Amino acid sequence: MGLLEGKTALVTGAGSGIGRAAALLFAREGAKLVVSNRTEKTGEETARLIRLEGGTARFVRADVSQPADCENLVKKTVEAYGRLDAAFNNAGIGGELNPLADYSLEGWREILAVNLSGIFYCMKYEIPELLKTRGAIVNMSSILGQVGFGAAPGYVAAKHGVLGLTREAALAYSASGVRVNAVGPAFIETAMIAPVTADPAAKAALVERHPIGRLGRAEEVAELALWLCSPKASFVTGSYYPVDGGYLAR
20 to 30 A Cα–Cα from 159, which one of 12, 18, 123, 173? Predict the structure, then answer.
């Protein structure tokens, strides 16, 4: 019996990378899935892959920076399956790389809208349904939710903010049965960092930041998100869990 057998799960940003890996894993562990993405083609492909493995999945397009999209996403999930038991709020963007004084106003607004406000909007509409099932939320933060980087003020500010939102929601709703946690990946080999890792020297510099001696894999983050959404983590809430190959130990 899978860890999420009989449960309904929602995964945002499921078109690639960590989101796709998590959606596939959740389905293998018995969950019925609603997968969401801003890009329809890749989101539909994730749902198709789940169904090819014998799982149950539907795609609902959503731009998490838009509150109405997040509300509709939860509504469609409940209409499809009658309930919501777990939500992995994974959708995010990398944003521009510039020191603060050179960071564009447009870039600042965009990354906060997706990476921070998007988490807030998703939780706002997920929590009323999760209160009915005593479900769980996992929010996507980052190692940069704990430390700085030097050239990513928007991303760092947003990911620090995700930890604050996670703790606030956990304090407000844990006694009512809704657990809320955050995960913090280091550098994971996904499309988001492909422009950097395409340069061997740049990739080597990134690898060197991880004492384990390599970059992470999307499936390694998905495994932690699965556990946090499952009954195995029944006493775990309000916390932040790095998946970082030792990055934060330095």
Answer: 173
Annotated catalytic residue, options 81, 103, 155, 247: 155
Residue carrying structure tokens 């993405």: 37
Report the candidate in 55, 63, 69 with the shortest Cα–Cα distance to residue 13: 63
Give strand pairing partners of 247. none
CB of 103 within 8 A of CB of 158? no
DSSP bridge pairs for 181: 138
Distance, in Å, from the CA atom of 170 to the CA atom of 193, rounded to the nearest integer, reads 31
pLDDT digits (tens, 9 = 90+) for 94-108: 999 999 999 999 999
Stated pTM of the model: 0.97
Burial annotation 2-33 (CB, 10 A radius, 16+ → b, else e)? ebbeebbbbbbbbbbbbbbbbbbbbbbbbbbb
Active site residue 155: yes
- CATH assignment of 8-189+217-241? 3.40.50.720
Query: Across the beta sheet with 8-11, what order do the strands follow?
Result: 56-61, 32-37, 8-11, 86-89, 136-140, 179-185, 240-243
